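User: Can you recover a sequence for this backbone? Please restate the input before giving your answer.

Assistant: Of course. Working from this structure:
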């Protein structure tokens, strides 16, 4: 999909297979995927529809921008790189993307565990053979021969 940015430049936005399936399944009478049923033209603003949807879902405090943060966090926590997320969101600066991507505790724990696995046996306790004092060695040898 192509979008026009704030600076009036166009950028390509990849749509997931799921999004494409939803769009393909929608009945259309006009070329626009989301057209005003009264005019057949694209909406100028989606605030009313968004406001109705979020209130109906009991999410009156959720802003549309919050969905971008959630999307970025889901991508990062599923293992996508910051570079990939930066380009999907259309950020020119990686610092902007870093503000969007929030790591979950599970992701941080998985990262810590990955380091442990990478180090492997070095992180395991070292088992050393016990030094048996000579006085006990003699007792065991005597008991063995008895």
């Amino acid at each position: 999909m192509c979008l026009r940015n704030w600076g009036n430049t166009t950028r390509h936005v990849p749509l997931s297979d799921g999004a494409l399936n939803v769009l393909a399944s929608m009945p259309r009478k006009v070329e626009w995927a989301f057209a005003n049923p009264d005019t057949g033209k694209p909406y100028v603003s989606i605030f009313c529809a968004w406001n109705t949807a979020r209130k109906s879902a009991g999410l009156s405090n959720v802003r549309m921008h919050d969905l971008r943060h959630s999307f970025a966090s889901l991508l990062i926590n599923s293992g996508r790189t910051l570079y990939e997320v930066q380009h999907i969101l259309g950020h020119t600066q990686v610092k902007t993307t870093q503000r969007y991507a929030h790591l979950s505790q599970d992701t941080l724990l998985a990262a810590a565990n990955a380091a442990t696995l990478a180090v492997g046996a070095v992180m395991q306790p070292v088992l050393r053979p016990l030094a048996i004092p000579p006085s006990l060695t003699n007792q065991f040898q005597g008991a063995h021969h008895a």
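That completes the design. The two ends are 88 Å apart (CA to CA).
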